[in-house]
Amino acid sequence: MVDVPRQRPRRIKRLRPVGDGELRLHHRVVHGYRRAYRMAGQGPVLVLIHGIGDSSATWAELIPDLARTHTVIAPDLLGHGASDKPRADYSVAAYANGVRDLLSTLDIEQATLVGHSLGGGVAMQFAYQFPERTERLILVSAGGVGREVNPVLRAVSLPGAHLMLSALRLPGMGVQARLFAHLMRLLDTDLGQDAPELLTLVDALPDATSRSAFIRTLRAVVDWRGQVVTMLDRCYLTEGMPTMLIWGDRDSVVPVRHAYGAHEAMPGSRLEIFEGAGHFPFHTDPARFLSLVEEFTSTTGPADWSRENWSGLLRAGRPGSAAGQPNTAQNRAVERDMREASERSAT
Q1: Compositional bias (Basic and acidic residues) spans (predicted)?
Q2: Residue 321's closest CA among 233, 245, 247?
Q3: Using one digit for the tens of pLDDT, what is the confidence trace for 69-89?
Q4: Of 55, 56, 117, 157, which one is the catalytic site residue?
């Protein structure tokens, strides 16, 4: 009989219960506009940034677990959810400014940012604009990597989008849209994986003001050719910043190949692929998502930002250019992607 060494019992972290009252929407007026957000828990700060047409409600089932060990802040971006929807600047840079200003009103100086889809682009832009306030990045099915994006979003960026979205509110159209979504799921298409969430986004545009804000946001990042902003040209600046990429391998909105491109461009990043998941992997497998976030934030230290290090990275520039390198097919492909990216720079 072989003696098996006794394993040391795992140390159980004390979890603080989260009350239902903490999960309700709060409001702050910033620059004259009312901004909605959810805030719960205590501990290191996690900021959850939703995608286009969505709201903080997309994180609702995850917040109670995350808030047991973190202070969780989930804003409704301007033009979304219960926040005001003015005729305003809905670029990723403006959204990054808005997140900073909301955090400042809450007396929060630093945070780990978790961004989904458009929110991933906002999180990356926040880290670029305010590196001294960014501890870690968790990018979930993030926009702003490659040009490809779902053709429906490209179509909505065209003139006449208001009429297209308004038509979806006509009697009977909701039933037809749900039948189409059900068919896509029965056929086991990638679009079918995301159909329920995408239909929820349509339901979140009940009036002309909401639809106008959605279209303004979309046109800031997408045109008829695809995504018009990128983070690839500045990904090297994440060196020394703990970064995790999470993607579904059946993402019908932002293809999974973007995950591999971003992972290659971000020094020291970690990549987690959810098999069988679409554009919302944190809905498909919330237990795995929660486990990854908890493990990542507890085993990595916050970015140690300094002005000298930042200046050094900028002076050195993006590594891996073809200059001085063998003219391989891979290098030519990288340079082609970078040239395309430079045409779509968010700056």
Answers
A1: 333-347
A2: 233
A3: 999 999 999 999 999 999 999
A4: 117
